[in-house]
Write a structure and sequence with these properties.
It comes from Aegilops tauschii subsp. strangulata (Goatgrass). Pfam families: PP2 (PF14299). InterPro entries: F-box-like_dom_sf, F-box_dom, PP2-like. By secondary structure, this protein is of the alpha+beta class. The chain folds into two domains: 43 residues, Up-down Bundle (Monooxygenase); 167 residues, Sandwich (Jelly Rolls). Helix content is 20%, strand content 33%. It contains seven helices and 16 strands. The protein is elongated, with a radius of gyration of 26 Å.
């Protein structure tokens, strides 16, 4: 027994094994259970974790099922941007040899499409698809008549422009989109603001005296899909001075490889009274489990 103990004590390197000695092939399966931000954190541990954290087999499970479709749209947007000299080649998605980690990182950045009136991106934490549709991509009744509507330039919109309603009897704002959404459940929301926001002596203010007519009858929001899903929500618009997301409804995508047409609208067509003082920024689409701030749901 003493000889055995002496032999163990004399063995060089006994007990010196560390995380750095683990092969990447053993580390990678563990990383599959982590979210992308966590993977990036553990990549700092040592060379083995850094190598495994860049492996395609890890990031393939984090990308949306139809990432090739999304990457093609991102590549087209990058090509358009580079042709007018507005961006450099870093982070582009057009290279066929880009790693899946690089593709994930690129898809996390907003990709404009449809002449810059729409954007999509994926969440850094979960990889869920998000989308924003500008007011300029919506069909707004009376938008060309300056007695009723005008476009305001503002840094409070990701598109730097909102539609502002001065007064109208018949309010109707509608839009539609055809897109290959990754399979899953989504929510659609309108981003609205009562009052015209602006700066006065460096402070943000809004014109509350120009807000009227929204407390008399509710505004109706509707959503329908090409596969027969339909939902309706009614809200009295409120919260002047704040951007609020009004939840229209949810929809489910069963196939990541098929185009889905969404139609959505908001209307208040009671012609017994006028209404005014409303800013329409955009329509957002988020994964259903995403909980944005300033959101009103039924």
């Amino acid at each position: 027994m003493g000889a055995g103990a002496s032999s163990l004590e004399g063995s060089e390197g006994w007990g010196q094994t560390s995380l750095g000695d683990m092969p990447e092939s053993c580390v990678a399966p563990v990383l599959l259970y982590l979210d992308p931000p966590e993977i990036c954190l553990v990549a700092r541990l040592n060379r083995a974790f850094r190598g495994a954290a860049s492996a395609d087999c890890v990031w393939a499970t984090k990308l949306p099922a139809n990432y090739r479709y999304l990457a093609a749209l991102a590549a087209a947007a990058d090509d358009d941007s580079s042709s007018d000299g507005s961006v450099e080649g870093n982070g582009r998605c057009s290279s066929s040899v880009a790693t899946k980690k690089e593709k994930y990182a690129r898809l996390c950045r907003p990709t404009p499409f449809d002449r810059g009136t729409k954007e999509f991106w994926i969440q850094k934490s979960k990889g869920g698809l998000c989308m924003s549709i500008s007011s300029k991509a919506l069909a707004i009744t009376g938008i060309d008549d300056r007695r009723y509507w005008s476009h305001l330039t503002t840094d409070e919109s990701r598109f730097h422009s909102v539609a502002y309603l001065q007064q109208i009897w018949w309010l109707e704002v509608a839009g539609e989109i055809d897109f290959c959404f990754p399979a899953g459940s989504y929510s659609l929301l309108f981003r609205l603001h009562l009052g015209r926001p602006h700066k006065r002596m460096g402070r943000r203010v809004y014109d509350s005296e120009l807000i009227y007519g929204w407390d008399i009858k509710p505004t109706r929001f509707q959503l329908s899909t090409s596969d027969g899903q339909h939902t309706t929500s009614d809200y009295h618009l409120d919260g002047p001075g704040h951007w609020i997301l009004y939840h229209v409804g949810d929809f489910v995508i069963s196939s990541s490889d098929e185009l889905t047409k969404l139609k959505f609208s908001m209307m208040q067509i009671d012609c017994t009274h006028t209404k005014g003082g409303l800013c329409v920024d955009s329509v957002f689409i988020y994964p259903k489990d995403h909980q944005p701030e300033e959101c009103i749901r039924k």
